[in-house]
DNA sequence: GCTCAAAGCGGATAGTCCATCCGCTTGACG
DNA sequence: CGTCAAGCGGATGGACTATCCGCTTTGAGC
């Protein structure tokens, strides 16, 4: 992955495109690369060169958000202490953080929900995040805090499901609904 | 809603179109009305006349599935007896039935997940179904079997979320995963 | 500061897909 | 059988996608 540094103009355009893309994502608009080009005052080909598909653009937009989640997870992990309640609390907090992030940043949802193969650029990031979540999960599970019917691989799907469910509910505040649903779900995930 | 009966040829075409549409839905293909027309040996305009959008076609395809769920619910409801465990079991069984149906019939998912306003044709059916689920829910709730943080209006979103989560999970058997997730979720919904 | 190779640019345009319109056909009914 | 409205079909304009290629800009080397 040794990338030659971009030429000055190319870097400028890259940022402009990303900015426009971020704006579109935030307002929930569908991403059409020709429109992005016009809005960024850039040729169509320039957009397509940097981002061959809308998904590639969204992926790149989502990058920082994923990294933030990873850092969040890493900063809190090392304090070990596999006490049952603590390990559960740590897992729960990160799931809430993940749901909050997805509710806040619309670029995350499609990236998390997409199959691994569809997102070459973020595959490695997702891997790292999954590994962090997995560690938290394993600790909680080892401490006996988790229902044995739930596995590591279920965490991301379940988080996506929570966000999706909240977006189906015809409510103004999607984030609050998502938190509520996650709370209910976690009552089921927690072992009794 | 007094509809003039269709002319013989129109009815024939209508069925052909629906059949083709059902096939496409079953194989998970995206629905393009021009393709449907060709596959049904029918003019494009004929398809558009019956179904102005792909959603309208899916809606109609989903109709019988929704009706089956309604009947299922109605046939079991009247036996009243608001005993706590029984009312919970009835609610649970119908949620499982709903999830199973969605896993089996791909046309249901978009219809359930769509906002009321987007689906003029099925709005009334969805209403009826929601009313049935609502009754089951209210009975269970009145019997104290349900977590007070969950409301009637949450049932459909949560079911959609379960299906969505299962479809994110990279597994062969989506139906089984969905059932598993629903079981976990219901552990959280049930009052302890 | 000048030169020049190559990295990068942009927009014209060919390829697709979508949905409407309108002249023709067919079924219903007396 | 004749009438005529309901219904048919596909040609076609409009929108969107993505590529190609001739031109411009950059920056490394002198």
Automatic annotation (TrEMBL), chains A, B:
Coiled coil: none
Residue ranges for the DNA-binding region feature of this UniProt entry: 32-51
Domain HTH tetR-type intervals: 11-69
Top-level taxonomic group: Bacteria
InterPro entries noted in UniProt: Homeodomain-like_sf (IPR009057), HTH-type_TetR-like_transc_reg (IPR050109), HTH_TetR (IPR001647), Tet_transcr_reg_TetR-rel_C_sf (IPR036271), TetR_SbtR-like_C (IPR049445)
Gene3D superfamilies per record: Tetracycline Repressor, domain 2
Key words, A-Z: DNA-binding, Transcription, Transcription regulation
MF terms (GO), sorted A to Z: DNA-binding transcription factor activity; transcription cis-regulatory region binding
Name of the featured protein: TetR family transcriptional regulator
